[in-house]
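User: Can you recover a sequence for this backbone? Please restate the input before giving your answer.

Assistant: Of course. Working from this structure:
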């Protein structure tokens, strides 16, 4: 990883983290450049949040002679406070003070960074407008919707004008409208120079926001790269989804073309191919209500690389 240190926010080399017999992170290597977004992508238990906690100094990595982790030139194991001063964090949980209103939540938080009251008020007003919450500043937390709470937590994470924004599952459980609003805000932040580290198990979220993705499974990096490039280089372009099992035997008889790759469960069959016309010819043998053509996505790639079976962490 011979990267320009002036342009690199995080450099991680051979990172391991275990909790007893559970190996949460295994040999992780990555770098994150300024004003870009890197996303850890994977299912629950893949090691994404553990890697975030290592970056932010919430836990320490296992000792290994070749292991190193550098964030703004600091080691999180030794310089946790320095890194926190330069960073903002959006955790998975909504940890707002329900006894305070929106503005008081932010004012209390601003004191942790020693922001003068006048400056804090100006920043809070600006951030509430940015997150489209300016009409809610006097509302109690319990009066807010789930989407409003997530937007407020993002505003809170931006109070100290962080150079690095860490987002841990920022849109889990939100409806599509709120999710897209938050995506747009994250894009604006990145365009204005903020560096973003994102964990998500939403494949589309990573595709929409990330310049680079790392697909993780059981603590390990499976693949890394630009999401569009990963799709281009590692999976067929089109897929035919067949959801009616009564056609499976018929399909198996017609899938002899070596250009076609199949994947199936007891409930559906997927046929992958770079030639859409080839898939369309096959679909002509199926009832129109029982199939769907589409382009492949990161979820298809993830399942190709990791399989469809659930795996218990070892």
């Amino acid at each position: 990883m011979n990267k320009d240190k002036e342009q690199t926010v995080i450099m991680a080399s051979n990172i391991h983290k275990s909790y007893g017999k559970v190996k949460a992170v295994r040999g992780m290597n990555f770098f994150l450049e300024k004003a870009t977004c890197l996303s850890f992508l994977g299912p629950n238990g893949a090691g994404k949040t553990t890697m975030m906690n290592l970056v932010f100094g919430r836990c320490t990595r296992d000792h290994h002679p070749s292991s190193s982790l550098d964030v703004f030139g600091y080691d999180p194991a030794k310089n946790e406070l320095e890194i926190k001063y330069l960073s903002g964090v959006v955790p998975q949980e909504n940890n707002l003070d329900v006894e305070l209103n929106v503005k008081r939540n932010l004012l209390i938080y601003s004191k942790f960074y020693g922001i003068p009251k006048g400056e804090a008020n100006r920043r809070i007003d600006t951030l509430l407008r940015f997150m489209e919450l300016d009409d809610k500043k006097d509302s109690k937390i319990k009066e807010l919707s789930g989407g409003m709470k997530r937007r407020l937590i993002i505003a809170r994470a931006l109070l100290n004008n962080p150079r690095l924004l860490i987002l841990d599952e920022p849109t889990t459980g939100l409806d599509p409208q709120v999710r897209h609003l938050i995506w747009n805000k994250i894009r604006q932040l990145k365009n204005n120079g903020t560096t973003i580290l994102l964990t998500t198990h939403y494949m589309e979220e990573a595709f929409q926001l990330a310049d680079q993705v790392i697909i993780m499974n059981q603590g390990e990096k499976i693949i890394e790269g630009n999401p569009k490039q990963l799709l281009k280089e590692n999976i067929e372009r089109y897929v035919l989804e067949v959801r009616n099992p009564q056609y499976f035997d018929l399909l198996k008889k017609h899938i002899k073309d070596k250009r076609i790759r199949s994947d199936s469960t007891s409930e559906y069959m997927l046929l992958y191919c770079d030639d859409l016309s080839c898939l369309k010819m096959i679909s002509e043998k199926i009832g129109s209500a029982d199939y769907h053509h589409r382009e492949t996505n990161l979820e298809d790639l993830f399942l190709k690389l990791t399989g469809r079976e659930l795996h218990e962490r070892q």
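That completes the design. The longest strand covers residues 8-19.
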